[in-house]
Amino acid sequence: MATNPAEKARHHAGREVAVIGIGQTAFGERWEASFRDLVTEAGLKAIQDANIQGEDIDAVYVGSMSTALTIGQEHVAPLVIDHAGLADFHMPATRVEGSGASGSIAFRQGVLAVRSGDADIVVVGGVEKMTDSSDAETARIVGSSMDQEWESFVGATDTAIHAMMARAHMDELGTTLDMLAQVAVKNHDHGLKNPYAQFKRPITREQVHAAPMVADPLTRLHCAPLSDGASTVVLCPLEAAESFTKKPVKVAGTGQGSDTLALHARHSLTTMAAARAAAERAYAQAGWGPDSVDVAELHDAYTVNELIALEDLGFFPRGGAGPATLEGETALGGRIPINPSGGLKARGHAVGATGLAQIAEIVSQLRNEAEGRQVKDARRGVCHNTGGTGATAVVTALEVL
């Protein structure tokens, strides 16, 4: 039996998989649109982009974190099918939950379904409607992805836990407040060029420092918003992809990892072992590593998350992500452009949709369709999506042939 990621990647190889369609909504405070409206808008765009019909779809996966608390509705996978007018096809529809990684886990399940031969055409959607809840209720919902007994019960919040990570990164690796702030500045600059982004205004490091403190050292501008939005992709076997589109994007690798739910039980606060494991598995399947990546979308729910991810995925050595960010190496035009969409920080964070919005951005980049923010000659891209404070992580490697 295979024991290391590379051996397992070869052992589990099946049909190669391609993304043939993408669609997403604008992210933000979408009070005029319902949950159903958002997911249907993104889904119809993806289906049209893929040049498929409803009867072509073999399976649907929906990533969503907490619909029972946000809109009072569970059993959302058949709801999505019904509202899209696809109920008469009686296709299998499955809802997937993994906190902030819900969308990427749903994507991974769709990839595995096509890879195994169980399905030929799979639609994967991610959606969340966050802004109809009060701030206090939203904080409770987000906090539910943490350990309730060891963290939430004693008053810890999601921001407070990430502030501990940021402080540890500063103390252990020499990261500065300017380095953290530059993540937000850079991603807001990128968001100016994304028509789907929630925030289209530049910010400065001085504004980040001066913003109201949420949990020391993280001010409000270190934190991504919680948004409404949806994103959808369509998958099929790579061998059939060109019958649907002239611009298929290959799913080169997909990896998932897990870790302890509570932060105190981990070996380090300055790295996410789940993300490192997920990256190792995705790179092993792809047959290439971080040195071959042209562009990446990383889970920057807080500025420190992007720095940790840059190091966990091998783009920079430990302690190297902060200085590189400050020097512009992760900006558009830099050595490795990160979050050209604006990331969670500027595009917005509609929790269940985030992972698929990352996929849609990288697919747009690899198809040379990211107008205004296009990374020149991008051929390979990576997405990194985490759940909670890093107990779940998914890394996806994409490429054009």
Walk me through what this model shows.
By secondary structure, the protein is of the alpha/beta class. The protein folds into two domains: 5-134 and 228-243, Thiolase/Chalcone synthase (Peroxisomal Thiolase, Chain A, domain 1); 141-225 and 249-399, 3-Layer(aba) Sandwich (Peroxisomal Thiolase, Chain A, domain 1). Helices cover 37% and strands 17% of the residues. The chain contains 14 helices and eleven strands. The chain has helices spanning 5-11, 35-50, 67-70, 76-83, 102-116, 135-143, 158-173, 177-191, 205-210, 273-286, 303-312, 321-326, 343-347, 351-366; strands spanning 17-24, 59-63, 93-96, 122-129, 213-215, 218-219, 228-237, 249-258, 295-297, 380-387, 392-399. The strands form two sheets. Strands 3-2-4-7-1-8-11-10-9 form a nine-stranded mixed sheet, with helices on both faces. β10 (380-387) and β11 (392-399) form a beta hairpin. α5 (102-116) packs across α14 and α8 packs across α11 (303-312). The chain is globular, with a radius of gyration of 19 Å. The mean pLDDT is 95.
